[in-house]
Amino acid sequence: MNRHYLVLLATTLLSGCYFSPGERTVFWGSDGTVTIERYASNQGGDDEGQWQTAACIALPDSWTNSVSVSIRGTEQVDSVSTVFTAEGVNYADGAAEMANYYSIDGYSWQCVSDIARQYADGDVAEVTWKLTPQFDNALVYTSMGVISSNEDDEQYFESLVSHQLLSNNQQAQYW
After folding, report:
1. Bridge partners of residue 147, in order along the sequence
2. Which positions ≥6 away from 26 have C-beta within 8 Å?
3. Average pLDDT of 53-73?
4. Is the pLDDT at 8 greater than 50, yes or no?
5. How far apart are CA 72 and CA 63, in angstroms?
6. What is the C-alpha separation between 31 and 33, in angstroms, rounded?
């Protein structure tokens, strides 16, 4: 296994934060859209504090249809776990880093981030992408994680996952 990936895996496991891969095969909804959900859960350890959720998606270069992104979860407000909902803000630096770390021929990265929020043990953040596919069978990639308030610990590029987007009459290539 590549040494780079071992370092990323060790960092993620030791950080105390769990990143869900989401569904790997996603079928279109009856409205012709696809929803991909990823979440992170603070599992304790040293991860309590100010964190910014960041998420990225790599779409085929030929993708022209719209993509919307929302972020929701729980944060600490006056020491009470409180629900939040937000729209992601374009994170161009993140897209550039993803293109540097995970350059995929024929794909372009788009990233968003949230504001810094206070997270404690048990708090979660969920990112939802809603896409309108233009192909019966498309492969996209997502990554989701956090940036510390002083930007010395960035984990958003450590949880890369592929998602096969299929219309209801298609089968994934690996079946």
Report:
1. 52, 154
2. 34, 35, 36, 163, 164, 165, 166
3. 93
4. no
5. 26
6. 6
Residues 6 or more apart whose CB falls under 8 angstroms from that of 30 comprise: none
How many Å separate Cα 124 from the centre of its chain?
13
Q: Which residue has the higher pLDDT, 149 or 98?
A: 98
Residue 75 in 3-state DSSP?
Answer: strand
Sign of CA dihedral 130, 133, 136, 141: negative
Residue 142, CB-side half-sphere exposure with 13 Å CA sphere: 29
pLDDT of residue 56: 95
Q: How many other CB atoms sit within 10 Å of the CB of residue 84?
A: 16
Q: How many helices (H) and strands (E) does the chain have?
A: 2, 11
Estimate to the nearest angstrom the gap between the alpha carbon of 144 and the chain centroid. Answer: 3
Query: Can you tell me the mean pLDDT for 8-21?
Result: 46
164 Cβ contact list (under 8 Å, min separation 6):
24, 25, 26, 137, 138, 139, 172, 173, 174
Alpha-carbon span 22 to 38, nearest angstrom: 5
Strands of the chain (E only): list them: 17-19, 25-27, 34-42, 49-60, 67-77, 80-87, 89-90, 107-119, 124-131, 137-148, 161-166
Q: For residues 6 and 55, which has the higher predicted lDDT (pLDDT)?
A: 55
